[in-house]
Amino acid sequence: MKRIISLAIILITGYQIYSQDLVVIEYDGGDLQEFLDGVPDSSLVKFPDIHMTYEQTLVIQHKKHVTFDFGGFRLHAKTTGEQVTPIPRRAHKWPRSRSHLVIHQSSNISIRNLNIVGPHENGGVSEAAYNKNYEAQHALEILGSKHVIIDSSSFVKIYGDGIYIGANSNNIKITNSAIRKNGRQGIAIVNGHNIEIASNELSDIRRAHIDLECNADGDRIENIIIRNNTFHRKRLMWIAAASGKGVVTNVRVENNSLTCPASIYVGNRKGNSQRQGPYYFIGNQTSKPYGNPQGAIWKIRNVDGFYAQDNYIIGQPNRNMY
After folding, report:
1. Which of 56, 20, 26 is nearest to 39 (CA)?
2. What is the tens place of the pLDDT at every residue in 289-307?
3. Measuring CA to CA, which residue among 48, 40, 94, 95 is closest to residue 75?
4. 89 three-class SS
5. What is the mean pLDDT of the chain?
6. pTM above 0.85, yes or no
7. What is 240-285 written as a DSSP string?
8. Using CA atoms, how far apart are residues 298 and 107, in angstroms rounded to an integer?
9. Which element (helix H / strand E) includes 108?
10. pLDDT digits (tens, 9 = 90+) for 221-248
């Protein structure tokens, strides 16, 4: 760890403005987890543009007001983690639980210019892309954290989700980033609030591009904005929000561009009596027709409030698509 200088700075995160002394630190080699553990609050952390092979789960935990500028740093896992001894907090169901980076119980964290490459050479839309033994190996997990920005980063060849948000995380912004060739969801939210997904590119996603699915009856997913993104190939849904548990409410999907079918399934499944919504779909466009035996491009079930305006969604020719 190289401590450079202390600066007085005004930081604008997009959610709040605060003034503070900011310590600038450079990573200059050594054990990466030890380095992250030693990063002080109120700091700007800079990384070199290098390629590092790393098989363990990295954890950013209990940090406040830290910007990590990875500068193109590439974190590459080349194995499934079978031969790796997990850290205690990840030992349960290892290697299924081997995610690559976890932000845990932290606030005002920015991750910029980070590239995570997983070992999944079959990632994408094929049958071989999904592997239940490794499906929870997410590129990035955000758990119990608030005021987090993920910007100008990429997550590719991952067995699990590109980004997974849970444990009541709040005020999360994902921008200008790419998720490609994975084995489960592109971005999954299971328990989170005030989340913006904007100006990203998702392609070759095994399940849904965006999955809003509570894990427990008491979970809530609310105030979600999905705007100005570009979506390419996926296996299942564009937007999936049909959990049998919890509540999904106030979701806005606007001005997105698709080169794949714009199929959605929102509402809830049998067994969840809590009505979902409202949902807003505004100004979305696709260049790809979609057809299925049910005749439905958009499936809406037990929803309280659904608004659609100025969308261009194409049904497959010679089918009675609604």
Report:
1. 26
2. 999 998 899 999 989 999 9
3. 48
4. helix
5. 93
6. yes
7. EE--SSSEEEEEEEES-EESS---EEEE--TT--S-B--EEEES-E
8. 37
9. strand 107-112
10. 999 999 999 999 999 999 999 888 999 9
